[in-house]
Amino acid sequence: MGDMAVMFEKFRFLTSGESHGKCLTAIIEGMPAGLDIDIDFINNELKRRQQGYGRGERMQLESDTVEITSGVRFGKTTGSPVTLVINNNDHENWQKIMSVYPQDYTVEKSFTAYRPGHADYAGSIKYNHKDLRNVLERSSARSTAIEVAVGAVAKLLLKHYGINCNSKILQIGHGKTEEEMHNEIDNAKSNGDTLGGKFEIIFDNVPVGLGSHVHWDRKIDGRIAQAVMSIPAIKAVSFGDGEYAAEISGKDFHDEMFLENGKVVRRTNHAGGIEGGMTNGEPIVVKAVMKPIPTMRTPLNTVDSSNMTETTAHFERSDTCAVEACSVVAEARIACVLANEILLKYNSDYIE
Ligand SMILES: Cc1cc2nc3c(=O)[nH]c(=O)nc-3n(C[C@H](O)[C@H](O)[C@H](O)COP(=O)(O)O)c2cc1C
C-alpha cells in the first residue's frame, strides 16, 4: 500500500512550527511550473482565517503575512519545491521560553494541569513530557495558519482550472441567523463559556472523475473527510445531505438523471457531488461540525500531573468561538485534496 500511496500523491506538503515559535514553515512539493502566484491572494486568505465573530485577543496581536522563500521566480512557480514562511509576530516575547538552547532553560509558562479537550494528556504520556507546553505548542490550532497559506496556493492552481470555492456558517449554538449566532457567542462569552458550530463548503465547476472507485484510499470522499476531520476541533464531516441519510428514503435521496440537449443533468444534489468515491460534476458540498473551544475562562475540572491532585485547567488567551476561521481552514484542506486530484488527472509538469 505504501508504494501506491506515493503514486497517488502529487501535491504534497509538510508543515513545521510551534504556536509561539519563531515561524511556521511549509514546503510544497509537486507544483507544476508556470503558475501565477498572487501573494496578495494568499495574504487575504490568512486575513480571512484571523477574522470572525468570537475570536480572542491573539487575533489582534497577529497579522499574518506569508513570505515565499523558494520555488517562485518573477511571480511564477518554477517547478521546484515552494517554501512558505509565516513569522510569529509575538515570538520576541517568547524567545527565551521557546529557545532551542539548553542554557536558556526556564520553567516560565510551563504548566502541568491537563486541559480537557486538548492533546495535553495523551500527548504528554506518548512523548514523555512533564511540561505540557511541549504538547500545547504544536497541537495548537496556530499551525492552521500555514495550512491556509498552502491551501491558498492549491486554490490558485484550482482557479487556473476554473474551480472556485465558497463557504457558509450554518449554525452556532442554537443560532441559525447571523444575529442569533452573534447573540449566542456574546452570551457564551459573558458566561465564560465557549461554542462550536456547523459550516458548509462548496467547490464549484469540478470535473467529473476526480478520485476513483477502484481502491478505498483513492475515494475522494474518504480523502476529503480525512482532510477535514483532522482539523483541530472538527468532530463530524458529511457530504451533501449525508447527515439526514438515515431518515430520507431512497426515492427522495438519490439524484435522478435527465437528458437536456443530449447531456446528462441532475435536478438535485443530495450526494454533494460525489458518487462511488468520484466527483460526478455537481458541486462538491461538504458540511462539518466543530466542537466548542476547549480552553475556557470558567475552567474545567482536571488533574495536575505534577502531584496527581485534582485542580482546574490552565487558561491561556483563547477564542470563544472560531467556527468562521475553521471554515477557512477547511476550504484550504479540501483545496489541497482537489489540487492533488487535478494534478493526477492532468498530469503536467508545467502550465501554459
Ligand atoms: C481556527 C481554530 C482556532 C482555534 N482556537 C482555539 C482556541 O483559541 N483555544 C482553544 O482551546 N482551542 C482552539 N481550537 C481548537 C483546539 O485546537 C482543538 O480542540 C484541540 O487542539 C484538540 O483537538 P481536537 O479537538 O481535534 O481533539 C481552535 C481550532 C481551530 C480550527
Description:
Helix 2 packs across helix 6, helix 6 packs across helix 10 and helix 8 runs antiparallel to helix 10. The strands form six sheets. This protein has a four-stranded antiparallel sheet, covered by helices on one side. The protein contains ten helices and 16 strands. With 352 residues, it is of the alpha+beta class. It has a single domain, classed as Chorismate synthase, AroC fold (4-Layer Sandwich), CATH 3.60.150.10. Helix content is 30%, strand content 22%. The model has no long low-confidence stretch (mean pLDDT 95). The site of flavin mononucleotide has 21 residues, from helix 10.
Sum this structure up briefly:
With 352 residues, the chain is an alpha+beta fold. It has helices spanning 2-7, 39-50, 58-61, 120-127, 133-139, 144-160, 178-190, 220-229, 250-253, 323-346, and strands at 12-16, 23-29, 66-70, 72-73, 76-77, 82-87, 164-172, 197-204, 234-239, 257-260, 263-266, 274-275, 278-279, 284-290, 301-304, 309-312.
